[in-house]
Amino acid sequence: MAFVGEQPMAGIVYIHGGPNAQFTHGWYPFLHHLALNRIAVIAPNFRGSTGYGRAFMDANRYDWGGAVVGDWLAAAAWLRHSLGVSRERVGVYGRSYGGYATMLLMGKEPETFHAGVCHAGLYDFTEFFEITFVPNLMSRSMGLPFYNRRINEEQSPLRYFESIRNPILITQGELDLGTPAKDAERTVSRLRALGKDVMYAFYPGEAHDIIRPEHILDVANRITEFFAQHLVRKRAPDH
Fold first, then answer.
1. Between the N and C ends of the chain, which has fewer C-beta atoms within 10 Å?
2. From its phi and psi, is residue 94 left (phi > 0), alpha (psi between -120 and 50) or beta?
3. pLDDT, tens digit, for every residue of 176-205?
4. Phi, psi of 66 (to 5 degrees)
């Protein structure tokens, strides 16, 4: 799905959670809001999404950040080639699994994604399994990092923290038991220790989803301004 307003100045790839979920036609007020602010959004049903058969849904099982990266890069290319978005004005945004994917891409693909927003993501696979309240659910989807060395060594965002070059906003609910705040706070500390440009917004009383009206408004304004600052108003490089 795509959300495109008049004369988009920037574009983002929005990555849904799950990963076994999907975008269907409907009303997505925040994504429409971004489009009205000249930030085009493409929300792909990448491999691992539901609705396209069992084989497609299982395509990234035990391979959370492997071949699926190509789907997200293709979405970014669509923003550039179909909408004319400048390369340096492409970003990425996601929640839950999408938050994981966003952090991974910010480290692995800094030439493609120039700003990223992660909500309720997971960033260090080994430590994540020590603190999450849903280890069985997660292990069926991604495998245990203690035994699946590929996903732990190649696909954990932690492995690419030093390669991050562009700004990141992390948002997190205090009461999230699936992707606990402790992982987000450790990640913020690690990134700041490495001198990375990271902002952190913490929401008391919220769990995996932000549901209080005042917090919904705050996070929407933060994300919109973050992308406006780092993508829409970004100066084009001198050639």
1. C
2. beta
3. 998 999 999 999 999 999 999 999 999 999
4. -100, -105
Question: Beta-carbon neighbour count of residue 84 at 10 Å?
Answer: 11
User: Could you give the C-alpha distances from 120 to 65, 128, 170, 235, in angstroms and in order?
Assistant: 17, 12, 8, 30
Residues 6+ apart with CB under 8 A from 43: 1, 2, 3, 13, 14, 15, 16, 23, 28, 31
Distance (Å, rounded) from C-alpha 233 to C-alpha 215?
25
Look at the chain and count its residues: 239
The CA distance from 226 to 65, in Å, is: 25
Residue at 93: amino acid letter: Y
What rounded mean pLDDT belongs to the chain? 92
Alpha carbons 220 and 112: distance in angstroms, whole number = 24
Number of Cβ within a 10 Å radius of residue 55: 8
Q: In DSSP terms, which residues pair with 119 in a beta bridge?
A: 95, 171
Q: How far is CA 184 from its chain centroid?
A: 13
Geometric angle at alpha carbon 146, from 144 and 149, rounded to 5°? 90
DSSP state of 123: -
Best CA proximity match to 116, nearest among 125, 126, 104: 104
Distance of CA 120 to the CA centre of its chain: 9
- Domain 2-232 in CATH 3.30.70.330? The answer is no
For residue 36, give the amino acid letter: L
137-168 pLDDT, tens digit per residue, is 777 777 776 667 667 778 899 999 999 999 99
